[in-house]
Amino acid sequence: MSAADPNASLLNLLQLQRRAREAGSPEALGFVMVNETLQLLPYRQAVLWTQAGLGQVAAVSGLPQPDPSAPYVQWMARLCRHLIRQPAGLDEVGAVPKPQTGPREVDVQGLPQDLSADWSQWLPASAVWLSLGPAAQAGGGEAEAGLLLARDAPWQPHEMALLQELGHAYAHAFHAFGPRQAWRGRLGRALSGKVRRRWLAAALLLSLCPVRLTALAQAEVVPQNPFMVRAPLDGVIERFDIHPNAAVQPGTPLFSLDTSALRTRMELARKALDAAQEEYRQSAQAAVTSDKNRAETALRRGKLQEKAVEVDYTTEQLARIQVKSDRSGVAVFADGNDWVGKAVSLGERVLLIADPAQVELLAWLPAADLLPLAVGDRLTLYPQGAPLQSFEARISSVAYRAEMTRDGFLAYRIKASFEAGQASPRIGQLGSARLYGGWAPLIYVALRRPLAVARQWLGW
Asked: Between helices 260-286 and 291-319, what is the axis angle to 10°?
């Protein structure tokens, strides 16, 4: 191709680039490189060498498949192995070899003795080496492959420029069939040299930055100093007179117990009292004339007093059947239907009467996340269902011993008082409490849990 026909050269270059991109396999791409490059530049022989495995001649012009045992192929493999490792020159300082970039003419006289001696036997006088791979694309690193073109006539500057552009396209197409580098390799290449040292220094500084130790705990808003309403006697709850969270005043009926058993006992006690009174009357009348009956009168009087006390006690219990509130506040319980028909014992808690304005926070900190906490330390409540709302509180007490929670894990009970100047949360509000400990390096905070697990597993 002459230099006087630039349009045809440009068209052939674009066609070769397209053919390289459309190649469906490495073999098809190698065929395009060693045979169809002739459409752009004249040459007599072409060889494609790759570093796959230990390095091999992948394609030879005019042959469907190169024979690795052939003398020509073996000599070409030694030549290409030397050319791909040979630097193009020295840098500006003159001490560091430059990486292979673009095409370069092969200096036959500069080759080793065993290669230069057999050159005339296998190749024409002039040859050009075209590096393919990272060097051709990014201008650095060792090439993954190379293309050797040989002919008798010297190579012209405009032909070297065409090979420069063609090498980029061939290298890109060849790299598409190469194995994908693992992320570890890409990361290692990105962190090589000065970049790696800078990243390590930045990571070291970041790991030493002090951060606050924090932990999350399940939390619930509970009433502060509530009045506990208990069952006044053994019995069965017959009905509830109020609803959950209802406001009550002193004297407001709360719930009532079943009166059937007490009324039966009351009737029996009254009949026994009437019988005792009649016996005492008869004994008192007979005592006027008989000393023996006078002695029995004292026994009859004692029995009469016993039955009277029993009637009074039963009457008092009937008066306590209906439980009323002793103070004002809000009735705190889940559901009255859960209690109706349920047998209760004397002193069993049924509900609470609490002041909505006097609440505190009850948190359960898992034993595995225990922090050095003290009374007065700050914590923050993040209520469920209100992502934009939070409440500040101060720790008022921390349990010394972990106990089993209703969710089945060991945790420390922590109570906290809400700070003044903010709206009080609703009683029963659930959420997560973030507790704050001391300051520690970031690396300690990140490795705190893994180190604790490793210590338990290894038994340090």
From this structure: 160
pLDDT of residue 362: 94
- Record the pTM: 0.52
The CATH number, out of the four listed (3.30.450.40, 3.40.50.970, 3.40.630.10, 3.30.230.10), of the domain defined by the range 6-179: 3.30.450.40
Which pLDDT value is given to residue 139? 42
pLDDT class of 140 with cuts at 50, 70, 90:
very low
What SS3 class is residue 265? helix
User: Which residues, 6 or more positions from 304, have their beta carbon under 8 angstroms from its beta carbon?
Assistant: 273, 276, 277, 279, 280
Q: Is the pLDDT of residue 51 over 60?
A: yes
pLDDT at 2 over 80: no
Q: In angstroms, rounded to a whole number, what is the distance separating the alpha carbons of residues 235 and 257?
A: 6
Q: Which helix (H) or strand (E) holds 242?
A: none
Tell me the domain boundaries of the chain: 6-179, 230-351, 356-458
Tally Cβ neighbours within 10 Å of residue 449.
11
Give the pLDDT confidence score for residue 396 in this predicted structure.
93
Strands 410-418, 359-366: pairing kind: antiparallel
Sorted by sequence, the CB contacts under 8 Å of residue 32 that are 6+ apart come out as 16, 19, 20, 23
